[in-house]
Design a protein that fits this description.
Elements (H helix, E strand, L loop, with lengths): L2 H7 L13 H5 L5 H13 L15 H43 L3 E4 L2 E4 L7 H35 L11 H9 L7 H19 L5 H14 L7 E5 L4 E2 L5 E2 L2 E5 L9 H7 L9 H32 L39 H9 L18
Antiparallel strand pairs: 1-2, 3-6, 4-5
Helix pairs in contact: 3-4, 3-10, 4-5, 4-10, 5-6, 5-8, 5-10, 7-10
């Protein structure tokens, strides 16, 4: 990382440590207080006696356990992935700075005039900054997408949408909300109001289509063929002078991200020559992160309110049974070293929240019999 980010990480936590805040995430600017609050509310509603979310009495016990605990997992995943995106951003900045230092003296003045000549790599080490820059660009969008997908799962769970929670993501949750028909039912009206809130919020926290572009860019980097990197070599703003007071020309570069991520490179060129965003990628990544953070914080605030309303009036929206099933993709993979020492959950050292989840899920030795003969025990 650059010195600026190292100094940020070296700030002491001080005496304000508590379980209410993930201080690492707060230090790096990736905290989501409302997501932490929502996770705590869900955890507190997991019951050791009735098991699962105590006020979901209409659900069978096993589904009540599985849906409630997975919801808690997803809620924690929102901030966790957002923080990973910020760390990828920090490392991307560092890799970019290293690469720009490599090309700084690449401006050549000769009889042909002033031109840029990219330094020749002498070893793999010379190519590492460019490769690392691409690595963390992909990591940034992967983490942003995962954070938003966890938010989508929270929308499905907290709003009680009739769809699979295991496979939920933000786009699927939006589609499910869009397909809800107007009704006199107050639970459905609450869902429709939330959908309108979500649409208004998306427009308020970023430029047009920022969320769709971010999703497409994530899919491009994670699932599609890699597109070429686009750089603009420009003079450095900080000038150096030689002994005679003349400017020493030095170079730096700007990266430009794809304007149309869902198109292949040729498809983009067919449409227009301006296939990249005009702004430097640093501005784009910084903007995407801040828009995502605002979007998630405000959405989780609203979800906290809805969760509380449902707790006070469980009949407002009944948690759908179809949110969970046993359609699990099994695997026979057992690792590469078959003689490795067995590692099981017979004895675990865990934090208090995980202990609470184990007891509320009836997977401790005293209550595991609850799962005997069920489809999940197969």
């Amino acid at each position: 990382m650059r010195r600026e980010e190292i100094e940020l990480l070296e700030k002491p936590y001080g005496d304000a440590l508590s379980n209410e805040v993930n201080f690492f995430d707060k230090i790096i600017g990736a905290s989501l207080p409302s997501a932490n609050k929502l996770a705590k509310e869900i955890l507190n509603d997991l019951d050791h006696t009735t098991f699962g979310v105590r006020w979901w009495s209409v659900l069978p016990t096993q589904e009540r356990i599985l849906i409630g605990d997975y919801l808690y997992q997803c809620c924690n995943g929102i901030e966790l992935n957002l923080a990973e995106a910020k760390l990828h951003y920090f490392e991307w900045l560092d890799a970019r700075e290293q690469r720009n230092n490599q090309i700084a003296d690449g401006i050549v003045i000769d009889r042909h005039g002033v031109r840029f000549k990219h330094p020749t790599s002498q070893s793999a080490k010379d190519d590492l900054p460019e490769r690392t820059e691409k690595l963390h660009l992909g990591g940034f969008f992967r983490a942003i997408g995962s954070s938003l997908d966890c938010l989508g799962a929270m929308i499905v769970g907290v709003l009680g949408l009739k769809m699979s929670l295991r496979r939920a993501d933000l786009r699927a949750s939006q589609k499910a909300l869009r397909e809800i028909s107007l009704s006199n039912d107050i639970g459905i009206q609450l869902q429709l109001r939330f959908f309108q809130f979500l649409q208004d919020l998306e427009k308020a926290v970023g430029p047009d289509d920022w969320l769709e572009w971010t999703s497409q860019c994530r899919n491009m980097l994670v699932h599609r063929g890699r597109r070429s990197s686009s750089f603009d070599v420009v003079p450095k703003e900080n000038l150096l002078f030689d002994a005679r007071g003349r400017i020493i020309p030095r170079a730096t570069s700007k990266m430009h991200l794809a304007r149309y991520p869902d198109r292949s490179e040729i498809e983009a060129l067919v449409r227009t020559k301006a296939t990249w965003l005009n702004e430097d990628a640093e501005s784009t990544l910084d903007g995407v992160f801040l828009s995502c953070q605002k979007f998630e914080e405000r959405t989780c605030e609203e979800l906290c309110s809805i969760w509380d309303s449902r707790r006070k009036n469980p009949s407002l929206i009944e948690q759908p049974l179809q949110q969970w099933n046993a359609k699990i993709q099994s695997t026979s993979f057992r690792g590469y070293i078959t003689s490795a020492q067995p590692f099981t959950s017979d004895t675990l050292t865990v934090n208090p929240s995980f202990r609470h989840r184990i007891l509320a899920a009836a997977v401790d030795d005293a209550h595991r019999g609850l799962w005997n003969g069920t489809q999940w025990a197969q």
